[in-house]
């Protein structure tokens, strides 16, 4: 069965420091991976996705994610965090096969807190 | 271009009452989805509509019904609300036709409380 895990409920970072939000996945076949961000009282916004090719994917707002097949990970990164990056981040994997082909399975979310 | 819109933004119901959550998208997307978000559980798929005229159950469909009214609109109905349905509900849409690379776009959500 496909699944995705975000091992940290919360990540705390000082403004200007690099940040990493972790995600690991389990899929049968090739993985299709997504990151979304949710600001307070808002819907989810798409950040980036990995389909194939370069293991480093660049997305919106200066975020990037590194795909590592051997470690089955897709960690979200940013070189220099901003206070405005504080939000809830979700990793998601596309299901493959069966009646729900093409649907997303979401992790539980990681709350990122960036302090000035 | 409003994207995905949802109404209402907030709703309080008593146990046993019914209501319909409305969703519309103006991006000419083929597929639409309903999720619920509960603390510590991420988003879970309730129902989806791969294309106009079709609907399918997701992970947690019990207690809900959906209608794909046309290409733009996808509604979620609670026939007899229960406290366990207290949640934030999100509608999403995607182009489809891109297979597994398809990206979903989300509405702002409806916060529902069932007393």
Q: Output mean pLDDT of chain A.
A: 90
Structural class of chain A: mainly beta
**Helix fraction of chain A?**
under 10%
Quote the beta fraction of chain A. over 45%
The CA-CA distance between the termini of chain A, in Å, is 41 Å
For this entry, what is the oligomeric state of its chains?
Answer: heterodimer
Number of helices of chain A: 0
Largest sheet of chain A: 6 strands, mixed
Shape of chain B: globular
Termini separation of chain B (Å)? 36 Å
What's the helix count of chain B? 0
The overall strand count of chain A is 12
Beta-strand share of residues of chain B: over 45%
Tell me how many strands of chain B there are.
Answer: 11
Secondary-structure content class of chain B:
mainly beta
Q: Which parts of chain B are unreliable, with pLDDT below 50 for 5 consecutive residues or more?
A: none
The share of residues in helices of chain B is under 10%
Low-confidence stretches of chain A: none
Task: Tell me what you see in this structure.
The complex is a heterodimer of chains A (116) and B (115). Chain A has strands spanning 3-5, 10-14, 19-21, 24-26, 33-38, 44-50, 56-58, 64-68, 73-78, 87-94, 104-106, 110-115. With 116 residues, chain A is an all-beta fold. In chain A, the strands form three sheets. In chain A, strands 2, 5, 6, 10, 11 and 12 form a six-stranded mixed β-sheet that branches. Chain A is 0% helix and 50% strand. Chain A has no helices and twelve strands. Chain B has 115 residues and is mostly beta strands. In chain B, the strands form two sheets. In chain B, strands 2, 4, 5, 6, 9, 10 and 11 form a seven-stranded mixed β-sheet that branches. Chain B has a four-stranded antiparallel β-sheet with strand order 1-3-8-7, with no helix packed on it. Chain A binds chain B through residues 9, 32, 34, 36, 41-46, 49, 51, 90, 94, 96, 99-100, 102-104, 106-109, and chain B through 4, 31, 33, 40-45, 48, 50, 56, 58, 90, 92, 96, 99-109.
């Amino acid at each position: 069965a496909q699944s995705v895990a975000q091992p940290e409920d919360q990540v705390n970072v000082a403004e200007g420091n690099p940040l990493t939000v972790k995600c690991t996945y389990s899929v049968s076949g090739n993985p299709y991976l997504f990151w979304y961000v949710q600001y307070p009282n808002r819907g989810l916004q798409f950040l980036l996705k990995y389909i194939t090719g370069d293991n480093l994917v660049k997305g919106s707002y200066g975020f990037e994610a590194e795909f590592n097949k051997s470690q089955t990970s897709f960690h979200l990164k940013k070189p220099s965090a901003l206070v405005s990056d504080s939000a809830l981040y979700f990793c998601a994997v596309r299901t493959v096969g069966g009646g729900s082909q093409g649907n997303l399975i979401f992790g539980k979310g990681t709350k990122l807190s960036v302090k000035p | 271009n409003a994207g995905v819109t949802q109404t209402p933004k907030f709703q309080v119901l008593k146990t046993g009452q019914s209501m319909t959550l409305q969703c519309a998208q103006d991006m000419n997307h083929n597929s639409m989805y309903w999720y619920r978000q509960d603390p510590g559980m991420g988003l879970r798929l309730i129902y989806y509509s791969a294309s106009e005229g079709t609907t399918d159950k997701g992970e947690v469909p019990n207690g809900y019904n959906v209608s794909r009214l046309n290409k733009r609109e996808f509604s979620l109905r609670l026939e007899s609300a229960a406290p366990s349905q207290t949640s934030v509900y999100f509608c999403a849409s995607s182009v489809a036709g891109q297979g597994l690379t398809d990206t979903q776009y989300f509405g702002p959500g409806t916060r529902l409380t069932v007393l």
